[in-house]
Amino acid sequence: MKKILLLSDTHSYIDDQILKFVKQADEVWHAGDIGDLKVTDTLKKHKPLRAVYGNIDDNDARAEFPLDNKFIVEEVSVWITHIGGYPNAYKQRVREGLKACSPKIFISGHSHILKVQYDEKFKLLHLNPGAAGKHGFHKVRTMLRFELNKGEITNMEVIELAHR
After folding, report:
1. Which label site among 64, 79, 150, 152 has the fewest CB atoms less than 10 Å from its CB?
2. CA 101, 72, 19, 41 torsion-angle sign
3. pTM for the complete prediction?
4. Is residue 10 within 8 Å of 36, Cβ to Cβ?
5. Are 126 and 106 spatial neighbours (Cβ–Cβ below 8 Å)?
6. Residue pair 140/132 in contact by the 8 Å Cβ criterion
7. Would strands 114-119 and 124-129 be described as parallel, antiparallel, or unpaired?
8. Cα–Cα distances in Å, from 32 out to 1, 50, 66, 81, 149?
9. Computed from CA positions of residues 41, 155, 17, 160, in that sequence, does the dihedral angle turn out positive or negative?
10. Is 120 exposed, middle or buried (0-12, 13-18, 19+ CB in 10 A)?
11. Interacting residues of 88 by C-beta distance below 8 A, sequence separation 6+
């Protein structure tokens, strides 16, 4: 079993509230718009990190992290990208990728809107953790945490951090 903390859109911001939840996880996944790499460097000091770069990220972030991160954890296939769209409105690149090989979990960031939605068409769980940083229009900083165990996704929780 793995406890996962999923966050996105930190926009160079990390604080003790985020780190409290990082310390409770087995792995941390970041769905892009990292901002300053001090964010991911800090996360990596505490837990294993899987991340992608986002549209605001510079060449250093793009050199360290991929556009798409596809992997399997606890028999659960995962695809993380920053700008992916939503069920029935995926970006064309993503839609073509999902047609070729649909993961069990598809994760995107970018919108700053937390969303957990099952996609009937592609038989996957779509996750967007919202934004953990302070930059953007969102009022509440959010993240998601859940557990993966032998092909199952369980104990999904929305984490609301302090208002920005």
Report:
1. 150
2. negative
3. 0.97
4. no
5. yes
6. no
7. antiparallel
8. 25, 10, 10, 7, 25
9. positive
10. exposed
11. 121
- pLDDT digits over 62-119, tens only? 999 999 999 999 999 999 999 999 999 999 999 999 999 999 999 999 999 999 999 9
At which residue do the structure tokens 């000091």 appear?
45
Q: Is the Cβ–Cβ distance between 128 and 3 less than 8 Å? A: no
Residue 90 half-sphere exposure, CB side, CA atoms within 13 Å? 20
Asked if 126 and 119 touch (Cβ cutoff 8 Å), the reply is yes
> What are the tens digits of pLDDT across the range 13-67?
999 999 999 999 999 999 999 999 999 999 999 999 999 999 999 999 999 999 9
38-52 per-residue burial string, b: 16 or more CB within 10 A, e: under 16: ebbebbeeebebbbb
Return the structure tokens found at 56: 């605001």
Q: 152-163 and 140-149: which strand pairing? A: antiparallel
